[in-house]
């Protein structure tokens, strides 16, 4: 029995959308799910009790950031990441791979792993499959992600092939290095860029390792939306139906709907929290850029259909004032709203799948949101 | 009957410390009280429900800031400051005087009032007793402060005398201009610098106007601590015992104790919220500078005697990590703690006065805090 298991409840009659549950040592996650991102052991501008209150059952945290600061040994000494950050529900940690690959000139890739310099102080480090597992084991996340390379877009076929094959070899090393299988589960990551045969090759190689879950990496990296949907279509087909499927780095409402429709169970993205700090809210009627002069005397709620703390208690005029005055409460209230919006959207999607009206739910949402 | 009234419950046997209540249209305030500052219609990094939860019964907000942004007419159109910022307990607003006088080269004082340029966009404005009342009436605060001049320290006698006499004339104009006496009460402000006879003169002039409360202004402006205590001693004597006494701009624990001992009922200061954002906590064992390396692996609470949200849920190691990573949650958690600390300190002081052990309570606190 693995630490994390998947339970399929129901599949939509007209699409690949599915309703399920991911069971973890820190509770059950109803899927499809959106996971708020808490990069540095905090979902920016949020108290954990607020995140719980809105119904989030899992958050994501970043191995690269925590390895550098405060250091995984400190988190371990604190009793693990859950205790350190006061979050007793499930946590998924990424592998650090995406971050170190993004460092550009500051990193060097070898078969062993990636040598890089810290973005904080320039100090030299090495992240490898073994090191990533060591760090994630120390953090104690429920779901650990494999150390992979997310190939850029565009990238030529030979590079993508070499890269995905190395990612497979790294996955085998991750599986070997993972030391706490009873409390933590390792998910594999499919790569292969925008090449169907390479996606197939990657899927076959990683599914062979029989892991408790699989992610689709290397999408939403700058490719056209239509291409992403096309690739996603066949990616999902190559993954086993009895394991959760996680589409990495995706969080706009349309991507969530399109992902769910194609059979994805898990999503994460910094989008809702980042745009909140920049003064943008997602609402049932589309995006609201709160600094706009139109809201100066608008004493209505951000979203009349929302029952989050922000919408229950504040007007757009007040939120605009806070944003313009550069007040921390602006980030707090808009982040609360945006996360609540996505958590609630997923709740609506789950209910729609249960009641066989996912297509209608999607159509109605798109119409109102303006997609 | 004025909007705000004072009820004296008990006076300490060995000092001038007194236990009372200030009744306002938005609830009763147990005194002595510390008032958290919410400059721009928000106590920085705090949700109002957090401030309520810690037991604060009144907050302060700044007329100068709200006049410039978002503008008092917008706050009025929102239904007043309480509704605008979602705070249904009492609010005290200052007059804007202190802020415009602090603008230095950007302001010009005349008998009419103060002409100044906005620190935000350089636009030209005039604040006068009438304008300050108009703005504070629009905001709808429970307690409005008179438009006064807080003389600098040091200042020569003739300047201070002229300034306090103008402040008296301005107070008469404030009283005349105040348009909402049933819902809002105007407090006068005593000036007079460090000159005993001028303090006496100021007191006699303003007490004559029979206002619902009086503040002591012009202290904690750079003078030595001992001088402040000496001046405070006689200032309190000159004010009537049946009205609340408010010492403006004071919030360090020793100032609070010394003020209470001399008969002050109300205090405000940005200190606890400002130092929180800079990473400093007030605790029962003195100040904690959270970035210190000593706390890197300190998994104990900030203050073992504190039961605030922060101390119940987080370690110094986590708080240090948040501060070093420049996370908003650092400001949120430290502000919560510091305000809880002062609100709780005042609760302890009130109980000590009730139980005739104020001197012992003060001595024990000073010993532990290191004063």
TrEMBL record, chains A, B:
The active site is at residues 94, 268. InterPro entries: ArchSynthase1/Queuine_TRR (IPR050076), TGT (IPR004803), TGT-like_sf (IPR036511), tRNA_ribo_trans-like (IPR002616). Zn(2+) binds at residues 306, 308, 311, 337. Substrate binds at residues 94-98, 148, 191, 218. Residues 249-255, 273-277 are annotated as: RNA binding. Keywords: Glycosyltransferase, Metal-binding, Queuosine biosynthesis, Transferase, tRNA processing, Zinc. One of its GO terms (cellular component) is cytosol. Pathway: tRNA modification; tRNA-queuosine biosynthesis. One of its GO terms (biological process) is tRNA queuosine(34) biosynthetic process. Its cofactor is Zn(2+). Its EC number is 2.4.2.29. Residues 15-369 form the tRNA-guanine(15) transglycosylase-like domain. Binds 1 zinc ion per subunit. It catalyses: 7-aminomethyl-7-carbaguanine + guanosine(34) in tRNA = 7-aminomethyl-7-carbaguanosine(34) in tRNA + guanine. Homodimer. Within each dimer, one monomer is responsible for RNA recognition and catalysis, while the other monomer binds to the replacement base PreQ1. Belongs to the queuine tRNA-ribosyltransferase family. PANTHER family: QUEUINE TRNA-RIBOSYLTRANSFERASE (PTHR46499). Catalyzes the base-exchange of a guanine (G) residue with the queuine precursor 7-aminomethyl-7-deazaguanine (PreQ1) at position 34 (anticodon wobble position) in tRNAs with GU(N) anticodons (tRNA-Asp, -Asn, -His and -Tyr). Catalysis occurs through a double-displacement mechanism. The nucleophile active site attacks the C1' of nucleotide 34 to detach the guanine base from the RNA, forming a covalent enzyme-RNA intermediate. The proton acceptor active site deprotonates the incoming PreQ1, allowing a nucleophilic attack on the C1' of the ribose to form the product. This is Queuine tRNA-ribosyltransferase. It comes from Sinanaerobacter chloroacetimidivorans.
């Amino acid at each position: 029995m693995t630490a994390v298991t998947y339970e399929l409840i129901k599949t939509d009659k007209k699409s690949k959308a599915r309703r399920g549950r991911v069971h973890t040592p820190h509770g059950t996650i109803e899927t499809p799910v959106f996971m708020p991102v808490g990069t540095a052991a905090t979902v920016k501008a949020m108290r954990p009790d607020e995140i719980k209150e809105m119904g989030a059952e899992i958050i994501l945290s970043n191995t690269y950031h925590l390895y550098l600061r405060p250091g995984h040994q400190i988190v371990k000494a604190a009793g693990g990441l859950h205790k350190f950050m006061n979050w007793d529900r499930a946590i998924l940690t990424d592998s650090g791979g995406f971050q170190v690959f993004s460092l550009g000139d500051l990193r060097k890739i070898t078969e062993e792993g990636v040598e890089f310099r810290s973005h904080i102080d320039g100090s030299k480090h090495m992240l490898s499959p073994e090191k990533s597992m060591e760090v994630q084991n120390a953090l104690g996340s429920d779901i650990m992600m494999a150390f992979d390379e997310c190939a850029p877009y565009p990238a030529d076929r030979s590079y993508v092939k070499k890269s995905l094959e190395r990612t497979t070899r790294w996955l085998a090393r991750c599986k070997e290095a993972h030391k706490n299988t009873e409390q933590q589960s390792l998910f594999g990551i499919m790569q292969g860029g925008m090449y169907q045969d390479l996606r197939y090759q990657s899927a076959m190689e990683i599914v062979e390792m029989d892991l408790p879950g699989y992610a689709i990496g290397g999408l939403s990296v700058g490719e056209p939306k239509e291409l992403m949907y096309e690739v996603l279509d066949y990616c999902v087909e190559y993954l086993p139906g009895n394991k959760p499927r996680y589409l990495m780095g995706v969080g706009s409402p349309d991507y969530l709907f399109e992902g769910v429709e194609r059979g994805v169970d898990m999503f994460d993205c910094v989008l809702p929290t980042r745009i909140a700090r920049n003064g943008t809210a997602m609402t049932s009627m589309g995006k609201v850029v709160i600094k706009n002069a139109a809201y100066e005397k608008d004493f209505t709620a951000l979203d009349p259909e929302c029952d989050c703390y922000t919408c229950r208690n504040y007007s757009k005029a007040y939120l605009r004032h806070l944003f313009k005055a550069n007040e921390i409460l602006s980030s707090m209230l808009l982040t609360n709203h945006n996360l609540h919006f996505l958590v609630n959207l997923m709740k609506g999607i789950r209910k729609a799948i249960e009641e066989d009206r996912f297509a209608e739910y999607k159509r109605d949402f798109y119409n109102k949101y303006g997609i």
